[in-house]
Structure formats: C-alpha cells, structure tokens
Write a structure and sequence with these properties.
5-stranded mixed sheet; about 0% helix; 4-stranded antiparallel sheet; mainly beta; about 130 residues
Amino acid sequence: MGLRVSLASLAVTAVAFTVAACTSGNGVTQVVVPIATPTPIPIILNPTSLAFTVAGASATFNASESGYAGTFTASSTNCSGIATFAPASGQGPAVTFTVTSVAAGQCLIKVVDAGAQAVFLQVIVTSTSGTVQ
C-alpha cells in the first residue's frame, strides 16, 4: 500500500531533516523519514471590502484559490438588514459573489473552503436621507 498525496490546493514547505536508520536483530533496516506538513494555498479576495452609499446598489467580489477545485461557501452572522449576497456557494478555483446593499451599517461576509480556511469581506453601507437646503 503506497501513500498518495494530492497537491491540488497545497504547497509543500521545504524542511531539512535527518533520516534515522536502525538495524534489527534479523538484519532488517528500518528508515524513518518525517513527512513535511503542507502549507495551504490562501484564499484570495478581490476586492477585500465593499462600500456602498445608497441602499439597493450591487457590487461583486471574487474568491479564488490556485488549483482548488472544491466548494467555497459564503455566510454571515451580522449582515441581516445591511446587505445580501449570492450565491451561497460555488465551485473553485474561483467564484464571483454579488453583494447588494440594504441599509446603513457594517458587516462581514465569511468565505470558507473545504479545508476550513476562511477569509472575510468587509461590507460598509452608508446612506443619507433628507433634503439639503
């Protein structure tokens, strides 16, 4: 049985290590080789924040992760009444989300990959009403 490693969304960090070998009484040599822990490729948001000055305006942002073919999931615990976004999820390596302003306030939209990496988009909605005389 062999070891299979998928590098679809991982970058391997080079490490220096010492190989330890020992011979048992029956002449069998065992070699112990530590395996480097892969470093995940980060999720990139573009842009990293959105600002609106009126309710009902829309803008997009992209989430991408080089070589990633899994699902990105967007969620928020504090955007209710401030902004909406769609879709709720999409397939990598890149997804475009649309954010629509609802009312004045600030919130965060969390985007997560299947490996539980998360990034946050800041949404700021400022609106004024009334007349200037």
